[in-house]
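[Q] Does anyone have a clean structure-token version of this?
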Amino acid sequence: MTTDVVSGKRILTTLVVMGISEGLRSIVTVSETSQRLMRFSLMLLRIFLVVIAAALPLAAQFRADDPYPRIHDPSTVVTEGGEAWCLSTGVGIHLLHREADGRWKREAPLYREYPAWHKVEVPENKEHLWAPDIIRLKDKWFIYYSVSSFGSNHSAIGLVTGKTLDPKSKDYGWKDEGVVIRSRRPDRFNAIDPAVILDEGKLWMSYGSFWEGIFLIELNPDTGLRKSDDAPLKLAMNPEIEAPFIHKHDGWYYLFVNWGKCCRGVDSTYEIRVGRSKTITGPYLDKDGTDMKDGGGSVFLGTQERFIGPGHASIFNEKGKEWLVHHYYDKDRRGRSDLRMLPLTWKDGWPVVE
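[A] Here you go.
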């Protein structure tokens, strides 16, 4: 909870309780012992109300000057009906849209009931679905997401499709399309953190977390599912790597990844790294010419003052202007994860944030 919110609610609580106290004293004549009991009771009431105020849901704690919501692992931002939409990690997959005043509104989660295969594939999953990504193919939205648990590569990437993101539309609804890819021991990869890109008629999905790094598979653009059982192609490696995203710009393919650890609030060590290639399948080299499969990756964005551990990058093009979409851990808010969008430009063939 922000300091301003806590302070404001404490002041309001104190004034209300003091008013009650003075009113009671002015109309009630009691013994000295009773007065002491009354003062003690009112003191307890003050403490109780302050504790209640401090326990208000985080959803009510956004600062008036802050348009960005609490979020983790934001998807690619897309547009429908003139509005921007975004998905994120959470129970049922969180769905948000940006309103006319620039603020983001959280809608009901996509899933109310999970497909049976979730518990069959990953019985350890705690109902949080991780790191979704989204793409429009023909007349449908294809949403990819992760079913997993911390510290394990017993994971699966699922797919759900629907005609619209707008819950108010008569066409709103989602269809489970099943498993895209799964991982188990002794697989070299962890099937989480999907990111999809349509390139020259071919649909690709990068994914991966820790284990042996970031991998790439081709998908069927008609079904959104895996095109073949060919071995996944390795793109990048680091002992602590995840959250890939591929973006094409001026004939180059740019692979963004995260190094470090997430999900530790102000102690998170996430940083975004990047390499580029002339083909989507690699090799991706950093600014020094080191292959990302060999541990290469130029630092693109790291911790800056209150903005700790930036991660899970994607790029949103709005009216010809590009934005870097990511989350970070806010030092001024006890390390909670928030959405952030920074203007993105290009210099000497590499991305730069303003």
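[Q] Thanks! Anything notable?
[A] Helices lie at 3-27, 32-54, 117-121.
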